[in-house]
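Handoff note, outgoing to incoming analyst
You'll be picking up this chain. Sequence as last confirmed:
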Amino acid sequence: MREGLSNLKYVFAPKSIAVIGASENPSKLGNVILKNLVDGGYEGKIYPVNPKYQELLGMRCYPDIKKLRGKVDLAIFAIPAPLIPKVADDCGKNGVKGLIVLSAGFGEVGNNKLEEKLGATVQRHGMAMVGPNCLGVLNPEKRVDSIFFPFFKFGRPNVGDISIITQSGAVGTCIADLASYYRVGFSKFISYGNGTTINDADLVEYLGADPKTKQILLYLEGTKDGKGLLKALEKVNRKKPVIVLKAGKSKSAGEAAMSHTGNLAGNYLAYQAAFRESRAIEVDSVIELFQVANIFSQAMPKGKKVAVLTDGGGLGVLAADALEKEDLEVAKFSRETTRKLKKVLPSYVNAVNPLDIVADSGTETYEKALKILMEDREIDSVIVIILFQAPAVDSRIIDVLVKESDRKVKPIVVVAVGGEYTKNNMKVLDSYGIPTYGYPDAAVKSLKRFTDYSLFLKDKK
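Most recent structure output, in case you need it:
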């Protein structure tokens, strides 16, 4: 791993941070970043840098990076673009290993020479740079946070094992905000913008070797290194899933991508071919990206046979339709499973798949039926559809699902359709790592992506 890439460790886990362009003005990025580091509980040393101030937030403020007496691992830039190459050079001369350049005004607006100058400076000193024109990084474990959104507007995810690489800060923050709301944890968030010296391929490679990242989400508009990205995807996707959302598929969207980050969106068919060849998991929307990521907390399915357990017959039928559409199989219960189900279910319930235990069945019936389905070796995955509105169903169903999910025998996917009460229960299930969906089609689509990836890994062994 080249020096600039290996030095990303100083970006994600610095022992000291300099905020270049720190400010007392609440409307300035330098103020929000400084305040977020302090309020977020970053435990390392913080050095505000701005010649206008002597002190900021109770900390000594330095006129420039050269005046600092302590060692600085990471410098976060929130100053005008024309000033950055010179200050970056000063950082390199003073031993700074990592840079996050939030400022825009480079290649994305036609200032290619300025961006090239910055890139050359960074590479000459062997520094790792995220940006320019980005939101930078978030590492919840180390409390490193360069995102210039206030805490009350943008929820920070808890510590987890999902990492996200995004060209678009806006798209990335939407996903991270959803993760925070549903209590899904992140390992690392990286908004890399123009990707001048460290691009998408580099970041996929780095996170592929990161033991604290179990899966990678990638939002991509275009790339400057198609061959490098394909190589990285092929290498990493064999070890951990890479879930990709490609934007800029149309001509007009491609032009918008070019003006956004200065990256050519390229021919979408070429990207599709690369995703197929590497077996990266392509999704079609921000919501689906989040939904598919959530399912990887479950045990890997061994095949395509799916059981559907529901207390609402119509939703079970919709799930069966969706399974056939996605080329998954509605599992046929074994004789032993049928016998066991008839023993614990009311006489008027048909022990067939989809298994409709009807709306007057309570949590105990769900628990007995689910346990039997989990024991059937002819069933690879289970979709549990819950009408939380039913009088006989109470919050104990969450304990039942968590208990079975934690056994890691086979994946459990939950579908719950409803309003506020239902959504509150869904949120709790998501926080326990049980993927929960608002309608059967979404659940089945995610399960299909999960199953295909599991079978891909099986074939590679």
